[in-house]
User: What shape does this take?
Amino acid sequence: MMRYSIRGPHKGPALLATAVALATVAACSGGSPSGSGTSAAAPSGTSSGTSASAAPTSAPPSPTPTPTRTYPLSTAPRTVPAVRDHEAARGPGWKPAAPAGVVVAANSAGLADEGKLLAGELGIPYRGTAAAGPGDVELALGGTGARESYTLTVRDGRVRITGPDEAGVFYGTRTLKQSVKGTGAMPEGVVTDAPAKPQRGLNVDIARKFFTAGWIEDRLREMADLKLNQFGLHFSDDQGFRIASDSHPEIVSAQHLSKAEVRRILALAQSLHITVVPEIDSPGHLGAVLRAHPDLQLRNVQGVPRQGAIDISKPASAQIVDDLLREYSALFPGGWFQVGADEYQALTVRSPSASYPQLATAARQKYGPQAGVQDLAEGWLNDRAAVVRGAGKTAKAWNDGFFRGGVVSADQRIEVEYWTGKEIGARPPAEYLAEGRKVVNLNDEYLYYVLGEPNQFTYPTGRRIYEQWTPLVLRGTTPVPARYDPQILGARFAVWCDLAGAQTPAQVANGIRMPLTALAQKVWDARTPTLTWEQFRTLATQVRG
Assistant: This one.
């Protein structure tokens, strides 16, 4: 607006026009959120109600200040997953424009990789460890919040992202990136954010269907933008063994990842704060190993082999599996190893002891006269868990490898990965939780993407996950009691390639895109979302591209 000043006596219409102009300035200025705009004062020596002809003419009044622009209260940034809390404020927000750059605060040099990545994504320079200047984005370690939490503050034309660990700050940069991608700006105010669950991720079966290192790396980048932090790699099964081996090269499939490729994948994952969890499933699903070692294959009393099942009564069986567990525990630096334990074919017959007397004999010899084949299988699980524990890992195993009523019980330290309630002697998830076990949700009703849709599997949709599923829904569609929520560590969406030719790698990537996006929302914040599914899908397209 223009400034108005009175430079001498005004009479008649001229004085009226001046008064109107001054009143207009006062009204605009009075709306300033900063309070800097003041209403126009009457000329010096003039009281309210005094006629214009009586106004003194000896000195003009001071100029009226320019009014400050008024901003509406900001709204929360539009991101996937949605932020947990946003404190609104008045202000212009932040846009990536000159002279903005990304800087790292003192004592936060570990955030250099996060800073460089963000600067490249926003198209602004990275200036390293430096004091924040006008328009800058500053990354800083600090605070006492939970792991992976962060605070993002937009104020005075700057952005500051802080967190107690590098992962939290990284997730703050994902929020900033998505908001800018979707709307061009980050709104004024303070975001306080943290995940509901510590384990959030994707599981991919590369044993039945080979996926390249590049394809896996693309999935890791997608996961990172969704604040997912765990990638399960199922690389051994009946159809293939897909990572090079130094201890047993004879078992490796023609199509496989070299160890150099695996290290490249692991380096990318680490930079994106994703832990890769390897899986060597046993004592079932070992067909690729057994093709090179047929003498170890499980055979029934008539000599008929069981597909993929290793004979756990033979010491050589444990030796070869433990060789592999130790080799890949050294290759993968993360804190978990999935040791399988599901679908052991010896336990799917009417009388395991009659069909597999060698297993029954070994069970009694190891665990006493009351032990049976189930106990030998449970002991096998405990022994494999002990091997990876010796390498500094926490063991994970599928829920149908945990049995009730036997002489041997599964070690309490093994994390239960709950996927099904369809096995023989199926146990509802509340049983595992009532035993005090920690559980990860891979509910096959919602989270299993099985190529070719065999055995009544149907491709899951993002909408079903978004509208119906929560981490409490471990089996079928019914949630477990809320009191068990702290024991549910999180969830992963799983791709299984039972009919490997049913989809191309590109089709798989497209098919899992929205289901994985919906899962990301529900493991970050399990509360009922505020957006409808259609609104959520539209938003995901805007902020993810």
